[in-house]
Amino acid sequence: MFEFLEIFSQWVVYDLLNIEVGTQLAKSVEFFIYDTSKILILLLVITHLMSILRYYFPMDKLREFLVKNKLYGIDYFFSSIFGAITPFCSCSSIPLFIGFLEVQIPLGVTFAFIITSPLINEVAVALFISSFGWKLTIVYIVAGIAIGMIGGFILGKLKMEKYVEDFVWRQNVNKKAKENKGEFLKVLPKLSREAFGIIEKIILYVIIGVAVGAFIHGFVPENFFESFLTKAGAWSVPFAVVLAVPMYSNASGVIPVIESLIAKGIPIGTALAFMMAVVGLSLPEALILKKVLKWQLLTVFFGIVTVGIIGIGFIFNLVFS
Predict the structure, then answer these.
(1) Contacts of 237 (CB under 8 A, 6+ apart)
(2) DSSP 14
């Protein structure tokens, strides 16, 4: 599907820029051009499709459905699924998280959404398939949804509603009159602006992520990361999680980085734990959530997600070693 991008990136590197074949610089620049172009195309197509879906999907009915369907954890499951299909990073999913709380959706169900939303999205899934194949992608999706469901369930059972800032509960919720959806061609410009708005929010992190991956791909010596993390032994997975926290990005931006890490010899579980920690345990997310959650709930939330990610990393290392 993206074969033409390989030809294009090679043309830019070797013909247009006249970089010597086989050099570290050539490998890095070719990697950067190819992956950036591929991700931009996926972003354009998928974010537009999701904007259309969200526009015609009745949000109020979804919220009512999540509240009513508590039997056997169905509410947690659907909240996690909704998180997985929304193309938001950890910070941009917070407004919807607050909206869920304002309409009295249970706290645990709401957390299932915000845990899953940054870990899995349609762009990340598409990139995962192209990089690692269907089998690993399906396991990755199941693992992300499981973290969201289990984390949300635990937080719900802990009954920590008192640690949500009071102003959230005091919000007046006015039911909006049912909108008459306009003709598709008339609303398409609005939906396109929404899609480009999402792209604008994440494109910088995508470029930074690809640039890091390109640098690793071209300039980092063979086995550098492998030897670095191997020294940690059994602690390589939690060590990777700790290293990832300051490196804020979204899943689509960090996938090129872990692709390069795996190519350099890092175990798949360690690399995946690194990716999940980057997108699900970011410092900017913590700072924004501090406006909504008191430190007790914020600490428990990050602790549960951290344990879940580390567990997934160990499982992947055992299964795919």
Answers:
(1) 269, 270, 273, 310, 313, 314, 317
(2) I
> How far is the C-alpha of 312 from the C-alpha of 269, rounded, in Å?
7
CA dihedral 132, 137, 139, 145 (to 10 degrees): 140
Q: What are phi and psi of 133, to 5 degrees?
A: 90, 170
Q: CA–CA separation, 288 vs 302, rounded Å? A: 13
Percent of the chain with pLDDT over 70: 67
What's at 311, amino acid-wise?
G
pTM beyond cutoff 0.70: no
Q: pLDDT-based confidence at 178, cuts 50/70/90? A: very low
**Across residues 18-22, what is the average pLDDT?**
87
Query: Two tokens at 306?
Result: 């951290």
Lowest mean pLDDT among 21-25, 225-229, 267-271, 275-279: 225-229
**Residue 198 class from Cβ within 10 Å (0-12 exposed, 13-18 middle, 19+ buried)?**
buried
